[in-house]
Amino acid sequence: MRNIMQSTRYYGQWRIQMSCLFILRFGDGYTILIRTNIDTNRKTVIDYIQQQIPEAIIKEEHNKMMHFRVSTNVSLYRIFGILEKARDELKSIIEDYTVTQVTLDDIFVNFAKVQEENQISKQTSQDENSFKLLQKRTNVVKPI
């Protein structure tokens, strides 16, 4: 039986190697991409989808595209039914849509975003600690 996960030391840092199936566990769910007309109020579509599928989380929106993430607790039958109903009810707002399983690319992009957010948070925390230390040493009050 092959190991799902193994770790190795690489240039002084630990690296973890995982199988694709193990990594896919981090991306449980479906991705919904909706393309709208360029001069459409995207908020209308977002509100409609989130009202019909409360589990839907908006991940990104730009230009004509909206990217939602939905857990696997919602059946594909329900998702497609709601999207077809949205096309009918919202008339010519939705041009087309795509529903896919989460890909490895999605998971790696999400890992990178989380890592970047952690680095920013860590840097902010260090800056605040440095400022507090400077305040203590110089008895300077932070300006309002």
TrEMBL record:
The keyword Transport applies. GO terms for cellular component: membrane. Pfam families: R1_ABCA1. One of its GO terms (molecular function) is ABC-type transporter activity. Residues 27-101 form the ABCA1-4-like C-terminal R2 regulatory domain. Keywords: Repeat, Transport. The keyword Transport applies. PANTHER family: ATP-BINDING CASSETTE SUB-FAMILY A MEMBER 2, ATP-BINDING CASSETTE TRANSPORTER SUBFAMILY A ABCA. This is ABCA1-4-like C-terminal R2 regulatory domain-containing protein. It comes from Rotaria magnacalcarata.
